[in-house]
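Objective 1b: paired records.
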Amino acid sequence: MTITHEEFQARAKEFLQANAVPHSQPPVEWTEESLVAECRRFHQALADADLGGITYPVEYGGLGLDKGYLEVFNQELSRYQAPLVPAAISHGMCLPVMNDFGTDEQKARHQARIIRCDELWCQMFSEPGAGSDVASLATRAIRDGDQWVLNGQKVWTSGAQYCEYGLCVARTDPAQPKHRGLSMFIVDLSLPGVDIRPLRQINGSSHFNEIYLTDVSVGHDCLVGGEGNGWNVAVAMLMYERVAIGAGGSGAMSRSMGSAKLITEARQRGRDDDPVVRDAIADLYIRERIQKFIGMRIRQAVESGKAPGPEGSIAKLNAAILSRRASDVAIELAGPSGQAWNAKDEDADEWANAVIGAPAMAIAGGTNEVQRNIIGERVLGLPKEPDPFKGQPWEEVPRS
């Protein structure tokens, strides 16, 4: 495709005007079911308008353009409410990993369908006994001819209830140290033996799931990155995840409870002259600006062809801290109305949801403690935490 940035921007603006709602208008109210349907519709329309898969190869459903065009599109998109959340993992993590590690056959089979949201994907990493230390996972995959048989349990799998496929990391060689004997598999979530169960959150929603795998048989052609290379694939996916969470702006609270929203609320509640409130919102605004600059730096590095690195952990950690600070300011402003409200007021619970939802940012994509370890080791050059079982076969390491 031959097109200038200006022409591409005009095309993006025209599309978004017809298919999305500006942030200047009232928030769009979607149920989970309608949001997923709208997400699919939106991305299918994007692809039909030659705006989907901007940086991905043409032969696999993309446009084959450089990342500068993606930045142009994202700048226009930032002005609109769009139903993107259900595809955040599918597009932000699974798609780039498929592009980096998938075989030509896998890309031809899936990549265009992921871009169009004909297929939504999730990632199947964490387990009850392997949360922060994903490499200690126990889900097994045993070779049986040209098939692999998977058994185990995954947990905290976002969006699995509406996804068609998952990328699942499993142990294929327990005689190897924990980081080596892993492989990544494409798992069709409609296969016999896949049991998806929702996990109810404190706010009543169920975005996460636990998945039980019982004698789930997948073909050898479902290996992504080759046998035994699962840890490298997983690390790449985690880096993409942290970049997606941390480099997208000023964190999850940026629009729902960011400084602009809180300034408006402070004025409406007559507290805009309160020096404590003003100081807290000013501090929040500064931190939001810093987060935006971190995001810009990461996106520029990616645009220059660099793979996501430990800087994604800096953005992810800062986004989690920012979300918590924003929710603290929000609930202080709300006062008693943040804890008890008129049942007929459909919007009053946003304050409580902001507070009880903010801690999730410190867990999703790796805990704050994990991010600090990565920053300490890979950015500051500090020594790693001691591991008395380093290099030992996974099957010989004691587990609870």
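Objective 1b, second protein:
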Amino acid sequence: MTHIRSAILLAAGRGVRMRPLTNSTPKPLLTLGGRALLDHALDRLGTAQVEHVVVNAHWHADQLASHVAGRPSPPAITVRHEDQLLDTGGAVLAALSENLLGAGDAPFFVVNSDSVWLDGPVPTLTRIQAALTEETDGVMLVHRTFQIHADVGFGDFFLDPWGIPRRRREREVAPYLYAGITLARPALFAGLPAGEVSMNAIWDRALAAKRLTAVVHDGLWFHLTRPDDLEEAEHALMAQLTGPTT
């Protein structure tokens, strides 16, 4: 199994649906269980022995830079300021173009900065690494839609018996939701021009080429889009940590 040394943590968005909490605070610095959302992800990456993480920043970028400057290493952190939002895929392309995500064809994690997860029996990042093969350019983490209490619409993906995702079609209800983590090879982004591009477009290209697989998360995962989601996650996390109280 390849040791993953680099990651990019996507933290540049304005967090519009989390307003008013994000009016003066970037969403990654909102707290859950007494820690910033960003720190939950960075802690997991550090535990997985990821050595270097790029954090892209735009909305209240100065706050993000100040926060990560106070974190202990590892992982080492580079804050990449985006004067103009590049969307999720564009942020990765920009980091790749500046050689911030390792050398050659080494794979790296792409993690949403608001992704907070608790591991199942085997660490989640280890399970994703184990699923990357020579026949794939990316592995995404998905979670069972029915286990999410927040509004997640009609889900995102179906999976075949080999873990190959398929997009939900019109009027379908999909059993799996993207859970904010992708393990990617640089080949996933090859040939794309610099600028604004969504990870969705990059996934679609990989799906068409049958170069993308998925791992189903087997632990607790929080969908954090609106203020109510954050409040509910606090209760769920406390219950998970303390166990039954009656």
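Helices lie at 37-47, 61-69, 87-97, 124-131, 199-208, 227-242. The chain has a mean pLDDT of 89.
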